[in-house]
Amino acid sequence: MRGIPVVQIPTTLVAMVDASIGGKTGVDTFAGKNLVGIFHAPASVLVDPQTLVTLPLREMRAGLAEIVKHGVIASEAYLREVASRVPEVLSAGGGQSSDSMLALIVPSVEIKADIVSRDEREEGLRKTLNFGHTIGHAVELVSGYSLLHGEAVAIGMAVEGRLAETTGVAKAGTAATISRTLSAAGLPTGIPDGMDRQALIEAMRTDKKGRSGQTQFALPLRIGAMAGAKTGWTVSVTDDQLREVLA
Length: 247
Prior knowledge:
With 247 residues, this protein is mainly alpha-helical. It has a single domain, classed as Dehydroquinate synthase-like - alpha domain (Dehydroquinate synthase-like, alpha domain, Up-down Bundle), CATH 1.20.1090. Helices cover 47% and strands 9% of the residues. It has helices at 13-19, 57-74, 76-89, 99-118, 133-142, 149-166, 174-184, 197-205, 239-246; strands at 7-8, 27-29, 32-36, 44-45, 215-217, 220-222, 225-226, 235-237. The strands form four sheets. It has a two-stranded parallel sheet with strand order 1-4. The protein has a two-stranded antiparallel sheet with strand order 2-3. Helix 1 (13-19) runs parallel beside helix 2 (57-74). The radius of gyration is 17 Å and the shape is globular. The termini are far apart. The model has no long low-confidence stretch (mean pLDDT 93).
């Protein structure tokens, strides 16, 4: 039934702030994450934070990873607000449906919707939304999908933040701010013990963001601004640079 109209009613935090916005569809295969899919925008998206009260804490934390990502790529002030509100939204006393939760969801949706509206098919600016996802998708795949998407993306953002600094792309202190915010949300920031680094690099080679044998990354210049404005919003990274930061 090609082209059938669809209304998204997300009931997880990661879907509310990320997956339901922008029209991307995807299927996970043994070859990798989101390598099969099309762009098909929903007719509308209906978000009700009250549904989050039934969400396990682990899923809430995973959704916060995408919220952190939006702060890193678009707004330093928003990222500070995220850090300040994390304790309340993760609290057992109704934090999931609190005003603080709504105050995080709305700007996150606005940030993604604004970027998508300017680059629907990811030919430029929308690539900034891939921050954390190149390494994150590889971590997901190599883990056998035992990690939640948000957990893997959190690891990806922390490592890619360090990559941005070691390659001279990002302002000093950027990686520490990213890792500190993720840790405050109870999210992982390091490659799991025993995970094969070479397997991660091989997984990244099949990523849809690869070009001409080099892995392309969306990397921050600093909190609230992304690198690559003159190069299609991506930065090429060598395997040696990757191995250094993965180690």
